[in-house]
Structure formats: C-alpha cells, structure tokens
From TrEMBL:
GO biological process, alphabetically ordered: cell wall organization; pectin catabolic process
Protein name: endo-polygalacturonase
Domain of life: Eukaryota
Record carries keyword Glycoprotein: yes
Catalysed transformations (reactions): (1,4-alpha-D-galacturonosyl)n+m + H2O = (1,4-alpha-D-galacturonosyl)n + (1,4-alpha-D-galacturonosyl)m
Class in the EC hierarchy, top level: hydrolase
UniProt family annotation: Belongs to the glycosyl hydrolase 28 family.
C-alpha cells in the first residue's frame, strides 16, 4: 500500500481511538463500569507495566534507569508509535532491554532512537568476555509490522527477531553501531539475529562490527534491499545442532566493505540440522577483505575440515546478477563442504578481484557463474 495511504489509515486509527479514551459506562442495573482504555502513553518504566487493554500506545521520550527492562505487550492489533527517543542508562539488567510482544502490531518508531549507550560497555571483547553486556538489546516477538526506528549503539547484539503466530514485516530500521569502530571497541554487534519464520526484512541499514544479518533458524524468509557496512555481511548461521533454515531469498542488498560479503556457516559439529533452498538475487558486494562468498561446514573455522551432520542443498545465484568485487587480500568464492548436494545454479554470480576461489563442493554440482 502507498505509504501516504498507510499514514492516513494510521492517523485515522489514532484519532478514532483517542475519542474512546476513559469514560464511565452506566450499565443496566445502574452499575458503573470503566470502559476499556484505548490510548495509553508510555513515558516511564511504570507506565509500560500493563498495556494489555491498550489498542494505541504512544511512547514519548524517556530514560530507562539501571536495573529495568521494558516490554510493550499491548492488545492484539495495537498501533505503537514513538514520539521521542528511549534511552537506556548503563544497566545491570540482562537483555533484552526492550521487547515488543504484541500480536498484529503496527510499530512505527517515527525515526526516533532506541539508544543503548553501547560506548559505556564496549571493550573490544563483545560477549566473549570483559564487561558484561546485556544482549540482545531489542527483541521483536508477537508479529506484525516493525518500522522506522534507529537502534543506536547496542552494547552487543542489536535486534533479535523471534516473532511467532503470524508474518512479520521489518522495514526502514537503522542499526547504527558505527561509533564502535573507534579503537575496535564494538564487538559482536550483530544487526539482526533471526530465529523465526515468515519474516521479510527490507530497506534496513546496518553499520556495525559483526553479522549484518544472521539467520539461525526458520523458513520463508526474505532479506531484500538492505544496506550493510563495516560488519560481516549477510549470514545464514551459524547453524547449530537441531537447527534448520529453509526457503530464504536474499535480494538486492548492498554489502561492504567488511571482512565477509555473504556466508552460509554450519557448525562443524552440528547434527540433525540443515540448510536448503537459498536464493541470492541481484546483490552488490564490494570491498570484502577476507571472503566474498563463503559456504562452509567447518564453522567456527572458515575453511578447514567440514562436518557432515548438517547438509546444505539448493543454493542458487539467479534472478539478477550478484556482483562480488573483493579486496586484493580476499578470496572471491570459497565452498568448503562435507555434505552438500544437488545442482547449484550460479549463473548470475559474477565475482572478481582478490586472490581466487577455492571450491570443495562435495556432491553439489556448481553450474555457471564467473568466479
Ligand atoms: C469513573 O467512575 C469512578 C468511580 O465512580 C470515578 O472515580 C472516576 O472519576 C470516573 N471517571 C470518569 C472519567 O468519569
Ligand atoms: C492488566 O490490566 C487489565 C485490564 O486493563 C487487567 O484485567 C489485568 O488483570 C492486569 N494485569 C495485571 C498483571 O495487572
Ligand atoms: C576466519 O577468518 C577471519 C578473517 O580472516 C579471521 O578473523 C578469523 O579468525 C577466522 N576464523 C578462524 C576460526 O580461524
């Protein structure tokens, strides 16, 4: 739907609901009841405590003190709109620090910020040690549309997508951890970690120091028209024991510069897991310094002795040319398979620059492509 129409519908919804704010209803038998509250304002931790009757939530600017977290659990179908920034003080709380858990939500951040004050934690060690860092910073649960917010300076991983019960559309969101580049202090600052199905992420921008997207499990996923800079590109995985990813379209994204362009990374010791049917269409990858495209079953190694317990099948580069232009230090395409199969149509892959490509595709047959 055109965004002007969408904006009109949202405005109409807000105005209509505002009319229904608290009023006492005189019921038969002269009993007085308080009507369902429709529009609720969140301007503090306490005011977010119980939003279950709210069909419209307005979040104004406020600061969340140490030791607190926020959950936006409104009525099904609620609109949740930000009119100011939410700022988190350095906290002793574990993540997620803010959770959106509303069915059929329309969350619009109004281009305001959810600010994690990451610089107060960053020490170059991420979630591997040093200062304890709440993670993830932001969690999307429930389902619906999540749009137009900037997630700024997450202590570690930024947004975790764990939606259930319906489809999710995530669009126009910026994850800006670029301040963590200074002194290489930002680490493990993944943009979106996805363990969910029926999710489309489009037109998002991620500036960070780890995966832009990491898809850990799920099916029917679309990652399209996003821009990733500074980090480790768009990843499927790492795939752990018991995890399955199937049916992913990765289209028209722009990635780089950074260590990697796009990866499928399967844990070398994973069993009962698989990756299948991944389509890469018309992506642009530039300036990768280590690997342009890496498909490996040796994770956490990049390219060594692959495992065989988590097969990969049905990988394609079709539907528009994916251009990969790597830095002189990098490999263009590396496939490191212990259990891969099928015919992989790479006819729309054009990879140039760097040192070369290393293909160990096991039983998969790669057809077409320039690498
Ligand atoms: C509703 O009724 C309660 C109890 O009689 C009263 O305290 C309150 O002020 C009323 N609210 C409105 C909006 O009239
Ligand atoms: C939340 O508010 C609703 C009504 O608005 C009420 O029925 C419910 O008991 C409240 N839940 C808690 C945990 O206070
Ligand atoms: C994989 O390659 C990256 C980039 O060169 C490097 O930083 C990382 O240490 C490598 N991983 C392992 C386990 O060797």
């Amino acid at each position: 739907m055109p965004s002007s129409l969408a904006a009109f519908i949202r405005l109409a919804a807000l105005v209509g609901l505002a009319v229904a704010i608290p009023s006492n209803i005189t019921a038969p038998g002269s009993r007085t009841e308080t009507a369902k509250r429709a529009t609720c304002t969140v301007n503090s931790v306490a005011s977010a405590a119980n939003l279950s009757a709210c069909t419209a939530v307005i979040i104004t600017a406020f600061t969340v003190p140490s030791g607190n977290t926020i959950t936006i659990a409104a009525a099904s179908g609620a609109t949740v709109t930000m009119t100011g920034d939410i700022t988190f003080a350095k906290t002793t709380s574990a993540g997620p620090l803010i959770t959106f858990n509303t069915n059929n939500i329309l969350f619009n951040g109004g281009d305001h910020k959810i600010n994690g004050n990451g610089a107060l934690y960053w020490d170059g060690l991420g979630t591997n040690g040093g200062v304890s860092k709440p993670h993830p910073f932001v969690k999307f649960k429930g389902f619906g549309t999540f749009e137009d917010v900037t997630v700024l300076n997450s202590p570690a991983q930024a947004i975790s997508v764990g939606t259930t019960g319906g489809a999710a559309i995530i669009q126009g969101i910026t994850v800006d951890n670029s301040a963590g580049d200074a002194g290489a202090l930002g680490h493990n600052t993944d943009g979106f970690d996805i363990s969910a199905s029926s999710v489309t992420v489009s037109k998002c921008v991620v500036k960070n120091q780890d995966d832009c997207f990491a898809i850990n499990s799920g099916s029917t996923l679309v990652i399209e028209d996003n821009t990733c800079t500074g980090g480790h590109g768009i990843s499927i995985g790492s795939i752990a024991t018991g995890k399955t990813v199937s049916g992913v379209t990765i289209a028209r994204n722009t990635v780089g510069p950074g260590l990697y362009g796009m990866r499928i990374k399967v844990d070398a010791d994973a069993t009962g897991a698989s990756v299948s049917n991944v389509k890469y269409e018309a992506n642009t990858i530039t300036g990768s310094t280590e690997y342009g495209i890496l498909i490996t079953q040796s994770y956490p190694d990049n390219d060594s002795t692959p495992g065989t317990g988590a097969p990969i099948s049905g990988i394609s580069f079709t539907g528009g040319v994916t251009n990969v232009a790597v830095a002189s230090s990098a490999e263009r395409l590396v496939i490191d398979c212990g259990a891969c199969s099928g015919t992989w149509d790479f006819s729309d892959l054009v990879a140039t620059g760097g040192k070369g490509s290393i293909i160990a595709a096991n039983k998969a047959v790669i057809s077409g492509g320039t690498y």
